[in-house]
Design brief:
binds zinc ion; seven-stranded parallel beta sheet
Length: 487
């Protein structure tokens, strides 16, 4: 298929005049019959890469994704484009699931979203096998690798699922993946020797990055006050610690600087309200912990600040990447010091609990299901007599066990009878597939790489980031180091 044809097909079938970012590169590679690993940050137009083949193919495009919460929306969006789309996951009633299986068996769909667990069900495989799967899309492909910050054991089985359905071409998509994760994705999907790697819109030519060393919070406040631009679009200031956020919030109040806050200690309703306010209004200043921003696609964020060192270059790049989505110039500032390191190292320690802790946690949970359901994590924390109230090993353990399929996922536990929370005991294989001890070391290494980037006063900052992700070491001409060099 020729390039011109793709553009013509796009205009005939979709309400778009042109491809954006690297959509065309990816779709061209698919039509050249290549396996593709696409690195696409949020906002780079990922969905079209599977909507396009779904719309024009006679066969089925299968998307595997771990994100149940997004599937409904992804399906609706595809339907609006006239694609016969559906999803199957654990959120459906069994009647509805059976109905969709029979539609699937009758080849009624062009695009199907499923979670990887689906492949454990014989009825699903049977219905799926009635179709010719033209393209297997592995969304959030970093989940296949333990290095990829959201490992899902079921993802390790994708290569064998793929063989079950005749080894279709693979399109693996992820927003961020370091070189190690990229390598792991290619190996685990068994496409290492036959693929094209496409960087899609990782380039952010409108961002100018600045890093400044500042030891005390007071110094950081001064810098922040100097760089804030209250009437020129929205701004986000990121904090690792809620107490630092609150300290800054008080000082801003004293200076009569309007702002909103977003962090884990706020009540759910308040958090939602503040988020809504941020999305709806211009010129909002938001003080937030890193959880803020996932899924937000506000085009005109003009400045992003970090008041403490982010845990890795991925997190940093993802967070500053929320600025300037409209393509207009945007600034990012990082104020950091050596003192940030112990805080981050403690976070890492809690995020990757030891095997013995995970086992003990599972036992505790198993024996106290009802109390846990009524009182939540506080109950478990108390039982384990944690002295530090920031210690989040309990939450981390729950998340790990739910990714492993050992306990029911958090979103559902409130609606469940208590005895349905536990699914199975973690086994040796789980601990081998995702080795917390190795991850702990790896995350510390990533933190140091972030620190080195911040500390480096000569090399282009964007160039260092691109190199980290396996790209070209460019000279951006806009970061503090580049400007220093010019001056
Ligand atoms: Zn530069």
């Amino acid at each position: 298929m020729l390039k011109d044809d793709l553009n013509e097909i796009l205009r005939q079938n979709f309400p778009y005049k042109n491809f954006v970012h690297s959509q065309e590169k990816i779709i061209t590679a698919i039509y050249k019959n290549k396996n593709v690993l696409g690195l696409m940050p949020t906002g780079a137009g990922k969905s079209l890469c599977y909507q396009f083949p779904a719309k024009i193919s006679e066969n089925l495009i299968l998307v595997i994704s771990p994100l149940i919460a997004l599937m409904q929306d992804q399906t609706e969006k595809a339907k609006q484009l006239g694609i016969k789309a559906t999803f199957v996951n654990s959120s459906l009633s069994s009647e509805e699931r059976v109905r969709r299986y029979s539609q699937l068996a009758e080849k009624k769909y062009q695009l199907l979203f499923v979670t990887p667990e689906r492949f454990r069900k014989a009825e699903f495989i049977q219905a799926l096998k009635k179709n010719k799967v033209e393209l297997l899309v592995v969304d959030e492909a970093h989940c296949i690798s333990q290095w990829g910050h959201d490992f899902r054991p079921d993802y390790s089985q994708i290569a064998s699922f793929s063989r079950m359905i005749g080894s279709p071409k693979v399109l693996a998509l992820t927003a961020t993946a370091t070189l190690e994760t990229q390598k792991d994705i290619l190996e685990k999907l068994e496409i290492k020797n036959d693929h094209e790697l496409i960087w899609a819109g990782m380039e952010r030519e409108n961002l100018s990055l600045h890093c400044e060393e500042a030891y005390e919070n007071e110094d950081k406040v001064k810098l922040l006050l100097e760089y804030l631009k209250p009437n020129e679009g929205s701004q986000i200031v990121y904090f690792l610690l809620i107490e630092t956020l609150q300290f800054f919030s008080k000082i801003l109040q004293k200076h009569n600087i309007q702002h909103k806050v977003y962090h884990g200690d706020l009540k759910g309703d308040q958090r939602k309200q503040n988020l809504k306010f941020f999305q709806k209004n211009e010129n909002v200043l938001m003080l937030a912990t890193p959880a803020f921003g996932l899924g937000i696609d506000k085009p005109n964020i003009r400045q992003v600040f970090h008041v403490q060192l982010p845990g890795s270059i991925e997190s940093y790049f993802q967070e500053i990447g929320r600025a300037g989505r409209d393509g207009k110039p945007a600034n990012t500032y990082l104020f950091f010091s050596e003192n940030d390191l112990p805080i981050s190292m403690e976070f890492i320690k809690w995020a990757y609990p030891e095997k013995a802790f995970l086992r003990a946690f599972f036992e505790l949970l198993k024996n106290n299901l009802l109390a846990f359901q009524q009182q939540g994590f506080d109950f478990l924390r108390e039982k384990l007599s944690f002295k530090n109230k920031r210690d989040f090993r309990v939450e981390a353990s729950y998340q790990i066990l739910s990714r492993w399929g050992c306990v029911e996922s958090l979103s559902d536990i409130n609606d469940l009878p208590a005895d349905k929370i536990i699914i199975r005991e973690p086994n040796e294989e789980d601990f081998v597939l995702e080795n917390q001890q190795e991850l702990f070391k790896y995350q510390n290494k990533k933190l140091l790489e972030m620190y080195q980037l911040a500390q480096n006063q000569t090399k282009c900052r964007m160039g260092q980031i691109y190199k980290y992700f396996g790209g070209e070491e460019i000279i951006c001409g806009r970061c503090d180091n580049c400007i220093e060099r010019k001056g």
